[in-house]
Structure formats: structure tokens, C-alpha cells
């Protein structure tokens, strides 16, 4: 049925408020409006009954950060620069939806429930208020949660609305983390869904979305607010042998729910055409979008596009989805998928093609490979781009590695693997690696390393995460005999990653090695991971120990700007005591609290103990 013109955005305010809701790990088939038999999602179903339900919406990635970054920029991951959940920062100069809407007069706010979306990833660009204050975020070693419940997200979002009354419209983004593993819904959902805690998490989020809509209604904002709800990615739940998400490109993790309710509501309608969210948000706001976006507006599904604000999406075109997490987390080959109509290809070390409209769907690949599959794969290859650092950075890194004179340079085991394994051939390792990462994120490093040693490394001896888990444990426990061996495997197989040089710098420090080599190792870490606060904090400490105050302050400033925001830890860090009387130091970290005494502790919870960072670990 057509949308009721009296309820379309054009019949309401000229520029509606926009509420964007993203839900992590949300599978469409667990929502009643997408065919789920249970009655767990009445609030989301009610949204679908008042607006548009999109049947063919795909995430840009099955990992949170790149998927959400595409929603907020309208660009493919290779263009916005965030490719996985392990690190990186939004590329300089990339315009965001929030920044453009703010320039157009919108009040912009965000409340995120996931540590993946910390402001040090650059996703706060353009928001007047970016609330990522998650209780327990720096308490990983104590096993505390690093998410906040949907109720807290809703409450913080409503505080933004109540504090920002005015004649200008608002753009508010709320991100819910709850359905992400591990599944542990609060009561009464914990008891009600004791046999299916994932469904309990989904039901709890639905309940809070219902409370949010009620709050809008109570504030008389419902009629002037367009609501967009999208899954940032799905969840494996054991289907196809996948635990969690982020590694494979099955429909269960990349085909997501998307519901759009125009300001004032409308009639229920299902849309099967291609979907691009960012340009649609711009057209809803009557704001011109950048010409460089990777997509078209679906505005024509709501009402004709306003004059001069871009054309409509083509009726049929390919979707592109990438999974770089296998490469970033495990050292496996990346995957990408292209879907056009019922045709789907997945490309890694080999190409596989599927007919989604056939009874077997993606459970059986098409053989022989059809002609159309090659064309779709060619289209996707150009969008994946390169994962290595730029040529100039690699050249500088290679020169720095030579100067570092690593002691294993001529070792017979210092040999990178000949080729990256295809993730589809490593499926038996998916579950143990996922479990190991969950244990590590909870601070149970010993268990993570045990899983790696018993289940992962015998099959994949240079698995990046597996080596990292045992390396972290060896460093923490002072096992120098193991550190050197694992460092060799890490550096030789992953020379363009900063982690091994980070560990090597601390190993040199413990050994009393030359300060110049420590500095070279940390500078190499900073060159390869320029988005990370950690190398700059270590360099600040190194320079402070050497009495080089200006250099120490410069790197400390850089570290804080990149996310080292536990200022109390920095104030108390005895390794920086030479800086405490410097006005610049006090300006950077603020005055010490009354009665506090300086101390050095294993605080923070970055990839190496003793850093004042965000506590964000790379979850999968």
C-alpha cells in the first residue's frame, strides 16, 4: 500500500527531527515483523506497522566499527578508513552525516553502548555531544562489563533531548550493544528466556525501544520525529558453523533489519529495492548530500525527492560487503561478497557463487561457477582495496626494521607463511578463537592463552590472535623464555603491524637494552599504528626518564588526543613525575584531586598493561 501522504515527512515539519537507532548483533529473523513466530519484539513490530520495512538491507561489514562508520559517512570501508574492530581511525577529511547536519542547523547528539565506538575511532566527528561514558570501560582486568545496558543508553538520550530544547531540529543516534555475546539479559527477560538468552537480549532491547518511543510521545516529539532503526550486523548463533560474527559473510550476519518511520507515521509497507542509508538521511533532512557518497537515496519510497537533492536509487544494483576482520584478527585472507538480486558471490582465495532464491540458498555453492559470478567478483575486487600500509610507510618501516637489528633476523623460523589461509577452510577454529577472545576481554588471559595453545596454534601456528594471547600472558607473568620465541613469530609473519615492536620495546627495557633501540621500536610502532595512543604514551615515558621534557610533553599530548583519557592515571604515573611541575602537563591532565598521592600502577587496560587508555580490546 502507498504511504499515507498526510503522514509523509512533507506533511509534517519541513525538516523533521531524526532519531537513528543501531542495534549490534541483531538478526532480522528474530523480529516478528520479519517473520519470527515468537512475540518477543512488539515495539519494533509496531514501528514496522507505521512505516517502511526494508527486506534487502545489507551491512557494509559483519563487524561493528566499519558497518556503523558506513552508516555515518555513506562510504565503503576502504574509503572511510575503518576496516575492522581492532583499530584504526576515521580517515581525515571524511565528512560525516552528523557534521553535515550540524552545519545545516541540526542539534547533533550520540549515545553509544559499545566500546567499539569510542570517540578515539573518530566517529564523534560532527556531534555536539558524544556520550561514550561506559561504566567499567577501564575495568577489564576486573572482569567488569564494557557495555552499557539499553536502559542507560535510552536515559542518556532523553537527557540530551531535555537539555537541548530549541527551535532547530535534532539528529540523535543511539547505539545498543546488548544482543552482542555474551548473552546475559536482565530480569525479567533472563528468566523469561532462560532457554534462549540471545532472544532475551533482543526482547530487552525491544522493551527499551518501546519505552523510548513512549518518551518521545510524552514529550510531544513523535509527530515531528522520523525514526530509523537498523541492525549494524547480525549474529551467527551456530548457523553455518559460525559463532558470533565478523569473520564470514553468511546472510545471518550481513543481511540486517532496517525500519524507517516517517515523522508522524504512515502505513506499513515492505520495500525490496536497494538501500543506502546516509543519502536517505540527508534527503529526509532536506539537506544536500556530498556528491561522493557510495549510494543513492531511497527517499522515493517515502515521497518524491525534493528538487535538487539527488536522484533515486536504481531498481537493481549490486551490494558490496567486506570482512577484513579475518585478516586483522587472525592473519587470514579477507573476504568480500557482492549480492545482486538473488545472485551472491563470496571471494577469498577462491570464488564461490550462490542462488539465494533456490531452496538450498547459500548452503550449496553453484558448480560450475556461472558467468555472472566473475562479473560480480570483478566489481567487488575494486572496492576491497589494499590492506597493507601505503608504499611510503612500508618503505620507512622496512628501513626502520633494518636499523632495529632484531636478533632473530637470520633465524630459520623467521619466515612468513607462503599464503594466507581462506577463512572458510579455517571454520573449525572459529568457535575456539571466538571463545578465547571473550575470555581475554573479560580479563581471563590465562584461559584465552590456554585455548590458543590447545585448540588454535596446533592447526594455525602463526595465528595472530593466538600468538597475541600467549604473548600477553608471557609478558604479564615475566616469562622471558617464551616472549622471545613468540615475538619472532609475530614480527616475521606480521612485519607491518605495530604490536611486535611494542612488545620488543618493553623487552629491551626489561633487559636494560639501549634506549636508542627502545625509541626506534616505539617510533616504528607509532609509524604503523598512528591511530593508537599507546606508542606515544610509551615514548612520553621514555623521554621523561631521559629528562627530555619537551619531547615527553609532545608525545603525551598526542597520546591524550588519540584516546589516553584516564587522566587520573596519568597524573599518578610516577614515570612522568619529572613533568608534574610543568604548566603544559597540568593543562593536559588537570589538577590532582585533594589527598591523592602519585603512584605507578597497572591501570588502564590497553593491549599492554600499564597504559591509561580507553580499555578497548578488540572483540570479534
Mean pLDDT: 87
Query: Assembly type of the shown chains?
Result: single chain
Tally of individual helices = 22
Query: What is the strand tally?
Result: 12
Uncertain residue ranges: 1-12, 136-145, 304-313, 594-610, 614-620
Characterization of this structure:
This protein has 22 helices and twelve strands. By secondary structure, it is an alpha/beta fold. It is globular. The two termini are 41 Å apart.
Sequence-ordered SSE layout with sheet pairings:
Blueprint: E1 17-23, H1 42-48, E2 52-54, H2 64-73, H3 77-80, H4 97-103, E3 107-112, E4 129-131, H5 150-163, E5 170-176, H6 189-192, H7 197-218, E6 225-231, H8 251-254, E7 258-261, E8 269-271, H9 277-284, E9 319-323, H10 325-330, E10 335-340, E11 343-347, E12 351-355, H11 371-384, H12 391-404, H13 430-441, H14 445-456, H15 464-476, H16 480-493, H17 499-511, H18 515-528, H19 534-545, H20 549-562, H21 567-572, H22 583-589
Parallel strand pairs: 1-5, 1-6, 2-8, 3-4, 3-5
Antiparallel strand pairs: 2-7, 6-7, 9-10, 10-11, 11-12
Helix pairs in contact: 5-7, 12-18, 13-14, 14-15, 15-16, 16-17, 17-18, 18-19, 19-20
Provide a short characterization of the protein structure.
The chain contains 22 helices and twelve strands.
Amino acid at each position: 500500500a502507498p504511504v499515507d501522504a498526510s503522514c509523509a515527512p512533507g506533511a509534517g515539519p519541513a525538516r523533521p527531527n531524526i532519531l537513528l537507532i543501531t542495534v549490534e548483533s541483531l538478526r532480522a529473523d528474530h523480529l516478528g515483523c520479519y517473520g519470527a513466530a515468537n512475540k518477543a519484539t512488539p515495539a519494533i513490530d509496531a514501528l514496522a506497522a507505521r512505516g517502511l520495512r526494508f527486506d534487502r538491507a545489507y551491512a557494509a561489514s559483519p563487524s561493528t566499527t566499519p558497518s556503523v562508520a558506513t552508516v555515518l559517512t555513506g562510504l565503503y570501508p576502504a574509503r572511510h578508513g575503518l576496516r575492522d574492530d581492532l583499530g584504526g581511525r576515521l580517515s581525515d577529511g571524511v565528512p560525516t552525516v552528523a557534521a553535515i547536519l550540524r552545519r545545516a542547523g541540526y542539534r547533533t547528539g550520540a549515545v553509544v553502548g559499545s566500546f567499539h565506538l569510542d570517540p578515539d575511532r573518530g566517529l564523534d566527528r560532527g556531534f555536539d555531544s558524544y556520550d561514550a561514558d561506559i561504566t567499567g570501560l577501564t575495568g577489564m582486568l576486573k572482569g567488569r562489563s564494557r557495555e552499557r545496558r539499553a536502559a542507560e543508553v535510552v536515559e542518556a538520550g532523553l537527557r540530551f533531548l531535555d537539555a537541548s530544547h530549541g527551535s532547530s531540529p535534532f539528529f540523535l543516534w543511539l547505539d545498543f550493544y546488548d544482543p552482542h555475546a555474551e548473552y546475559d539479559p536482565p530480569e525479567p527477560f533472563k528468566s523469561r528466556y532462560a532457554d534462549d538468552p540471545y532472544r532475551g537480549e533482543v526482547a530487552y532491547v525491544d522493551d527499551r525501544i518501546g519505552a523510548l518511543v513512549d518518551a518521545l510521545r510524552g514529550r510531544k516529539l513523535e509527530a515531528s520525529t522520523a525514526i530509523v532503526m537498523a541492525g549494524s550486523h547480525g549474529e551467527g548463533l551456530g548457523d553455518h558453523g559460525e559463532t558470533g560474527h565478523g569473520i564470514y559473510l553468511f546472510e545471518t550476519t550481513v543481511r540486517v533489519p532496517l525500519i524507517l518511520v516517517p515523522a508522524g507515521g504512515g502505513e506499513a509497507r515492505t520495500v525490496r529495492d536497494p538501500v543506502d542509508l546516509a543519502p536517505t538521511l540527508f534527503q529526509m533532512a532536506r539537506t544536500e548530500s556530498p556528491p561522493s557518497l557510495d549510494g543513492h537515496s531511497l527517499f522515493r519510497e517515502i515521497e518524491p525527492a525534493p528538487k535538487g537533492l539527488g536522484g533515486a536509487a536504481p531498481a537493481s544494483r549490486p551490494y558490496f560487503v567486506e570482512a577484513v576482520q579475518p585478516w586483522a584478527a587472525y592473519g587470514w585472507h579477507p573476504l568480500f561478497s557482492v549480492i545482486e538480486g538473488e545472485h551472491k558471490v563470496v571471494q577469498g582465495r577462491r570464488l564461490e557463487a550462490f542462488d539465494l532464491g533456490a531452496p538450498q540458498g547459500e548452503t550449496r555453492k553453484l558448480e560450475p561457477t556461472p558467468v555472472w559470478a566473475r562479473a560480480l567478483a570483478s566489481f567487488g575486487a575494486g572496492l576491497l582495496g589494499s590492506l597493507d600500509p601505503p608504499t611510503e610507510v612500508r618503505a620507512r618501516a622496512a628501513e626502520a626494521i633494518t636499523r632495529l637489528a632484531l636478533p632473530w633476523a637470520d633465524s630459520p623460523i623467521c619466515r612468513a607463511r607462503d599464503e594466507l589461509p581462506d577463512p572458510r577452510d579455517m571454520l573449525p577454529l572459529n568457535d575456539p578463537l571466538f571463545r578465547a577472545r571473550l575470555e581475554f576481554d573479560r580479563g581471563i588471559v590465562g584461559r584465552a592463552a590456554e585455548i590458543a595453545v590447545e585448540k588454535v596454534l596446533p592447526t594455525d601456528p602463526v595465528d595472530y590472535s593466538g600468538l597475541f594471547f600467549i604473548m600477553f600472558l608471557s609478558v604479564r607473568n615475566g616469562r622471558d623464555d617464551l616472549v622471545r620465541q613468540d615475538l619472532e613469530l609475530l614480527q616475521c609473519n606480521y612485519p607491518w603491524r605495530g604490536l611486535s615492536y611494542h612488545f620488543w620495546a618493553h623487552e629491551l627495557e626489561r633487559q636494560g637494552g639501549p634506549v636508542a633501540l627502545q625509541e626506534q621500536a616505539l617510533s616504528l610502532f607509532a609509524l604503523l599504528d598512528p591511530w593508537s595512543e599507546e606508542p606515544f604514551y610509551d615514548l612520553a615515558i621514555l623521554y621523561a626518564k631521559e629528562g627530555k621534557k619537551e619531547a615527553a610533553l609532545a608525545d603525551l599530548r598526542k597520546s591524550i588526543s588519540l584516546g589516553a583519557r584516564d587522566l587520573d592515571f596519568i597524573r599518578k604515573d610516577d614515570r612522568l613525575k619529572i613533568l608534574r611541575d610543568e604548566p603544559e602537563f597540568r593543562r593536559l591532565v588537570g589538577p590532582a584531586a585533594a589527598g591523592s598521592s602519585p603512584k605507578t600502577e597497572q591501570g588502564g587496560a590497553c593491549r599492554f598493561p600499564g597504559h591509561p587508555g580507553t580499555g578497548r580490546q578488540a572483540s570479534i
